[in-house]
Amino acid sequence: MAAPSAFGELGLSIIGLSAEYPPHSLEYTCLNTLGDRFYPDTPAMKKVLGINRYTGIDTRSSIGTPDHPAVNKKEAPSIAELHSIFQSDGVPLAIRAARKAIDEAKIDTRFITHIVATTCTDSANPGFDHFVAKGLGITHGVEKVLLHGVGCSGGLATLRTGANLALGHKARGLPARVLCVALEVSTTMVRSELDSINELQETRIGACLFSDCGSAVVLSNGIGEPSEPVYDLLGWDHRTIPDTEDDLGFDVDPVGWKVILTPRVPKLTAASIGPAFTDLKASLPQLPPDYQKAADFDWAMHPGGATILSGAEKVMDITPEHQRASYDTYINHGNSSSATIFSVMDRLRSKEMDAVAPDGRVRDYVVGCAFGPGITVEMCMLKRNMTPRTGITGLQTPPETPAETETEPSEAGDGGEWDTENSGSPAERNSVSESQDQYTKFIAESSLSCQDIVRNVSVAAEYITDLSQVRFSFLESEMKPYDRASVHGSPTWGTSGVSNEDEAGC
């Protein structure tokens, strides 16, 4: 590969950022409920349901519950039914996320010049980006691009595409404010995945990992009215791992889409991170001299699975604290495919995540990374704005002091929770609020490090089975089983009958 060319000063910045999760949180027992309700107790089904307990995910965000009508019919919902649910329940998530990002950017929608959107859980013409624009009241001639076939890497792919569009406008002396939107509704395909497990007697783990989310960023090219950045976008790297198109995919089917995920994925992705990071760093000569090793940076890694995150730590010599926002998002929401990376970036800037930074030091520079079908690797370099911001509407930490409580508006509903109008019954809202309060208190008062907090994810990889009963050797955790019951009220790791192998992820 030719030496990477230097990016120079691009003048690109993310000026608004938000993620919106739906109102329901699925515990592992929810998948068991559907399995017991509709399928025989076969070896493959038992294995998948066993894996489901040990993914490291506490809850997966979903537009529905196991009692949703779409997943309780005799047959799995058709692709037409899935599209209807995507439009009715998914598009509003994207609109709310986009509106929050635009509000944080402090711009009017008439200044949006481009919309770059992506999804892998719907296909229609016009695309969902048309309805997002309509829902935002954007009626002027905004330029729209809808990315297809990029899967979990889609969020960073929209950012890269938006950056090139913004630079094109800059070359013409024109302002650009690019709205990048990612939306996924994955949980409605659970019956399709369970059907395949039952019919093929295959160990398919897609139903254990994926969740629903809408997320958005606003990218500025710096021309026109100045805006305070959330992150500066310094550069990016895009590459494809040769001969891996059969290892990771999401193919259309009469009952939705089918996950393709081979046991090679964690090894392949782990091996690709180092070369991409080296080339990206080489293209950014303006980086300070104390930012050289991977551990010098914070990492916003797409949490495709436990072994994706653990593999990155091993090959890059970084700690869970470097990926703290990735773990936090994975544990509390699961893998929402393309929409997840913007959620991770948003979560990373919160006070809760700052409190568990490695060595107590929050890094100015952040590496974003995600993997998609192909297998494609998307990586970018961000510089975080450490100046306190006001009017932020994304995932924020609750106030730390009584003074903050008195002077700052409440952000209840952000940080992965939901606004009152979308948060279910008062009992559900109280339950969500209580859980968030307990988590915040644990972070603030516990003497445990981030390593302890996310240990359940790393240890989980010792107890879960991959798709083809092949043991991966790159992850050799020496941690003792972590008793989560004292913190989360959940089962202790290490008590499963699932064989001692690792799971894949994307």
Automatic annotation (TrEMBL):
Q: Indicate, by first and last residue, each region the UniProt record lists as having compositional bias (Polar residues).
A: 421-436
Note down the stretches annotated as region Disordered: 390-436, 484-506
Its keywords, alphabetically, are: Acyltransferase, Transferase
Renumbered to this chain, the Acidic residues biased-composition regions fall at: 403-420
- Please report the stretch or stretches of sequence annotated as the Chalcone/stilbene synthase C-terminal domain: 240-383
Identify the InterPro entries for this entry: Chalcone/stilbene_synt_C (IPR012328), Chalcone/stilbene_synt_N (IPR001099), Polyketide_synthase_type-III (IPR011141)
From the UniProt record, list the coiled-coil ranges: none
Top-rank taxon of the source lineage equals: Eukaryota
Q: Which Pfam families match?
A: Chal_sti_synt_C, Chal_sti_synt_N
Domain Chalcone/stilbene synthase N-terminal, residue spans: 67-220
Q: Provide one Gene Ontology biological process annotation.
A: polyketide biosynthetic process
Instruction: Mention one GO molecular function.
Output: acyltransferase activity, transferring groups other than amino-acyl groups
Q: Which family does it belong to?
A: Belongs to the thiolase-like superfamily. Chalcone/stilbene synthases family.
Kindly provide the name given to this protein in its UniProt entry: Stilbene synthase 3
